[in-house]
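User: Predict the complex.
Assistant: Input components as received:
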Amino acid sequence: MPARQTSKPRISKPRARRQTPETRPYHHGDLRRVLIDAALQLAAEGAEVSVREAARRAAVSPGAPFRHFPNRDALMAAVAEEAQRRFRVEIEAALAEASSIDPLARFRAFGIAYVRWAMHNPAHFEIISTGRYFAYGSSAELIRDNAELVALSERMLAEAASQGLLRSPDLKRTLIAGRALIYGFARMNLDGHFPRWGVEEGEIERMAEGVIDLFIAGIAKG
Amino acid sequence: MPARQTSKPRISKPRARRQTPETRPYHHGDLRRVLIDAALQLAAEGAEVSVREAARRAAVSPGAPFRHFPNRDALMAAVAEEAQRRFRVEIEAALAEASSIDPLARFRAFGIAYVRWAMHNPAHFEIISTGRYFAYGSSAELIRDNAELVALSERMLAEAASQGLLRSPDLKRTLIAGRALIYGFARMNLDGHFPRWGVEEGEIERMAEGVIDLFIAGIAKG
DNA sequence: CCGAAATGTAATCGATGATTACATAATGGA
DNA sequence: TCCATTATGTAATCATCGATTACATTTCGG
């Protein structure tokens, strides 16, 4: 039988507590948090996110993560939560900065911020948008965060409609069209379609603005 | 030459015969083809496409596929080629059936056929659109097929422009916008976004038409 | 202070992509 | 026709991965 490995002299270091009243980690300090960060970084590096690699970066055994996440999908869901939170913060900051009264101008700022974030954080955007890496319904926070962004879009267009700015009376249709346009543009970039469509790398951001403007001009009355 | 059918003593191989009706020869007839079909079917079933499972379905050893594909990505690229071919055939058939002179009506038919195919073949659509499963540049046929569809879209809009049907003089921008809208809609469905946006399953196809109509009305002059 | 709960480790499992050495079939030149 | 070469499939093996289990250790509450 292999001799039991003597355990490392663990220095008990009281780490900073999270404010959230969740499961409080004991041994590692805050392994759950560290694992999420490691996974986020892996995603940001474009590497494949594996539980083992996250554990490796946290300097912990391969089985340890499963004390905090029932399976890989749960880890990915937590990663998505964090990415979604950052996404929402960024979008709301951009809207706050825009500070326009015109709802269509706000919609424009929203769309541009959306595409820009997706361009700068491709791996995170991928994780939060496809639902390929985890069961979407597994995270209430993710659902809530997303619903708020949906509601935000709805409000902008509803306001535009109430001011008589829109051509179509079908608000839902207009909303879905705008969303499809923005999401589609972001994904075309992420999925590497633009080279096939003759759109150069440095041209993409400008093209995003142009395309959103064209859409708004199309739905605006007059 | 008449293929010599050899009797097979097959002493050293008590291997279990698979359910193939004829006694399976040592050499598979067209393993490459069969592997692609098996992988296509796996994708269609929504299962994860693994080389081993494809080999299993072809009743062949796990290493055999690597005689035909240098690695998994190459298999996936071949699968994407086949899926893309079917996709193109379907789109062109839909356009032929539309047989409208109006370029914008043709664009509409194109978009609807696009979304419909993506809805009915989610796994295939995923494979050909993301480039996550293989290196896109690895297949000349894939590039060519795709370029033809791009050119097809361009022609439709260029024709519309030449007939003075478009509001914007920026053809490229209009093209990208239309593509982003259609691709985005198809992906929203594939990525499971519609429930969050209050679009019911049975409503999606109608919504696709509505959204495309709205877009066309937005870019059309008058 | 002590026992229970929390959390980490070691060992192990089955599946996968991939590589290597070897076995067998198919092909074509002498 | 013979047989050597090439194409193609098999067997064995490896490293990695997600996941589970038994066990060790740390922390916390009564």
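Chain B is about 60% helix and 0% strand.
Let me know if you want any component modeled separately.
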